[in-house]
Structures are given as structure tokens and as C-alpha cells.
Amino acid sequence: MADDFELNTDDLTRRMDGAMASLRTEFASLRTGRASASMLEPVMVDAYGQQTPINQVGTVNVPEPRMVTINVWDKGLVNKVEKAIRESGLGINPQLNGTIIMLPIPELNEERRRELGKVASQYAESARVAIRNVRRDGMDQIKKAKADGMSEDDQKFWETSVQELTDSFIAKVDEALEHKQAEIMQV
């Protein structure tokens, strides 16, 4: 019966890790005033009849702290890549030099830093919600096992275990948010 109930904490941990990985990806796309190749990851180019990530149509480099360059492999796609960057909402004005597109990263003003801080907070809250959803799934499994005859001591043990796992991941989200906001506010 439920006496041999074993909650798959590895699965819960893996799913919570997935929420953290997603948060890291979202944080990487936030511009902090210094150049990063990852800031172009969400930008898609209309190439060869489909939406294609920029890193699949050219080489993305960061030659200096405030400059990103894209060496577009197909000369016919240069204008499409430039258009995709302009329309991406990154606030960067691309400059063409043959098949190389240069993206000078402007200094962030105080208002833009605050906006980015709020966006980072929203990303962190989404990650917290995802982690809490995983927690709820784990708790539902425990409740089901309790209905199948699990002892109250076992129920308390597993609930405490799931809650501790959740608390540790929420703390990781808070720490990542704190770090990202400090990075954004750094002049």
C-alpha cells in the first residue's frame, strides 16, 4: 500500500532546476549596459522562409565591452538581420559595414535601469510561480498517498521535505534577482 510510498524528489528537483534555467536565460537577455552575445538570443531573423536565431545566420562576437558585432554569412540576409535587430525592442541602433553589423551598446540611463529592474522582478516572480506549481504537484502526490493509507508521520516527513526543497529554490531565485538588479543598477 502507501507504506512503501517514495516521493520522486529527483523529479521535483529537476523541474525546479528547469524553472531556474529558464530564469537565467531570461536574465541573460536583459541588457545591463555592457555587451553580451546572449542579449541577441531572443531576436529571430526571417531567413530562408522561416524564423531563425541570429547565431544561425552569422557569427556573433563581443570585441569590446560596449560593442557586439555580427558577421553575417549570407550577404543577402544582412538587411533582414539589421531589420530584425531594429524591431526587436533592444533599443540598439545597428550600423552596417559590408557583411558585418556593429551594435554599439549605449549607456543606460537611470529610468531605463529601473524599468529593467522591474522586468527582472517579473521574470523572478514567474520563476517563483513555476517552483510553487512543482511544490503543489508534490503535495498533491502526498495527499493522494495519504488517502491510500500513508501514516501521518510519513505525510509530515514528505511535506517537510518538499517544503524545504521549495524554500531552497525560492532562495536561489531571490539571490539571482538580487544579483541581476545590482548588475543592472551598476553604473
Automatic annotation (TrEMBL):
GO terms for biological process: cytoplasmic translational termination. InterPro entries: Ribosome_recyc_fac, Ribosome_recyc_fac_dom, RRF_sf. One of its GO terms (cellular component) is cytosol. It is found in: Cytoplasm. One of its GO terms (molecular function) is ribosomal large subunit binding. It comes from the Bacteria. Responsible for the release of ribosomes from messenger RNA at the termination of protein biosynthesis. May increase the efficiency of translation by recycling ribosomes from one round of translation to another. Belongs to the RRF family. NCBIfam families: frr (TIGR00496). This is Ribosome-recycling factor. The gene is frr.
